[in-house]
Amino acid sequence: ARNALFQSQKLEAVGQLTGGVAHDFNNLLMAIHGNLDLLTQVENMPPKACTLVGNALSGVRRGVALVQRMLAFARRQQLHLVPVNLADLVYGMSDLMRTSLGPGILVEASFPLSLPPVLADVNQLELCLLNLAVNARDAMPDGGTLRISGRLEEISDPAGLGLPSGDYVHLSLVDTGEGMDAATLERATEPFFTTKGVGKGTGLGLSMVHGIVQQCGGALRLGSRRPGGTTVDIWLPLATPLAPSIAAPVGTAPAGGA
Ligand code: ADP
């Protein structure tokens, strides 16, 4: 079941990438289709040529249908941004995390109770966390610890993260694994970059996480020492701006009625 889940995550990542490719490919196929159409109108074509053009046309039509399906698939990946309580999300995933990580890896999660909800896509964020957990597992073949924590942070450095100034939740995942060397660290979020070898890694995990975090209006930063482990830092915008008048945390059941 774990493998099926992992495969479906990878498939979703592929879906995000195919969206762009499918669109360009659709335009190319349309041009080929147009030219073949013109060819069928050429007079005195030998019957053999007519058959070949007919075959080519039906191939192009199948291609167009396929690309349409890919586009429809990619469109489903549109993010659905809602207020998300990160502590609830992470604790809710603990069984899934444990299965993904295996017995040798300890997970420590810490979130302040007062942490405000972020604006994100729950399913995609869950997918991100699973991908990051799987990376941490792969970096700790002899076991170790994965620490997941969240805290409220005010960002006001226009240079650093490329985020507008304001309040964010800073989510960090720290593992005690093998870490990355400088060259790997630099390329880690590139699509299809992997050091895991044929059949083991697709190189899509971090690029997908990066894309999703950006689509949520957040930022991602990787830090690593080899040996010593890896830190994945993610900043996500708050669902509601903090204001002194908004005292009750959003997303928790109110104590009394209206
Ligand atoms: P994949 O996991 O399929 O290789 P990713 O995009 O998730 O693809 O990761 C790219 C590369 O970044 C990995 O192959 C690995 O070299 C490195 N990496 C990612 N996460 C970690 C981590 N927690 N510790 C060490 N290296 C990592």
TrEMBL record:
This is histidine kinase. Residues 20-240 form the Histidine kinase domain. It comes from the Bacteria. Coiled coil: none annotated.
